[in-house]
Amino acid sequence: MKKILLAALLIVPALAAAEQRIGVVDPIGALQQADEFQDRFGKLESSLKDEQSRLDRLGGEVEKLRGRLEKEGMTMSEDERQDLQTQGQQKMIELQNLRQSAQRKLNKGQQEILEVMEPKLKQAVETVAERENLDVVMNAQAVVYVQSNMDITDAVTQQLNKMK
């Protein structure tokens, strides 16, 4: 009798698991493919173009000063060499500050995008899960193997695009 009860206890969870429908989603992939995300990220990149241009310009100036110091440094007076080194150091500090500022703006912009898109992603996953009659939806990064018919990432992206 104990053996039958033990066998039944082992089989019941297996049967319950067999009835569950599981989907897998790559949330980052679904977001990155969504039209709204791409629009918002494109605007963020555009807003950073001025900073990028300034970074490129300053980087060029620093390289130009280094090249001049390497080529002409031996023939310059001590005062000229010191002045050139000081200019280079000032440009490097300015470059580092601008780089940090641009990185902060990028991080803030990305955070703002995620704050808007995360609830929409959650809603899209729920909508697809209900439509597909799924019991569980797992993050694709937590799964080692999945059959392609269980991946709902494209369906979530399509749902996100409908939610504009």
Automatic annotation (TrEMBL):
Taxonomic lineage of the native organism: Bacteria, Pseudomonadati, Pseudomonadota, Gammaproteobacteria, Oceanospirillales
Cross-referenced Pfam families: OmpH (PF03938)
Keyword field contains Cytoplasm: no
GO MF annotation terms: unfolded protein binding
Protein name, entry field: OmpH family outer membrane protein
Gene Ontology biological process terms from the UniProt entry: protein stabilization
Domain of life of the source: Bacteria
GO cellular component, one term: cytosol
Family according to the record: Belongs to the Skp family.
Keywords per UniProt: Signal
Signal sequence segment: 1-18
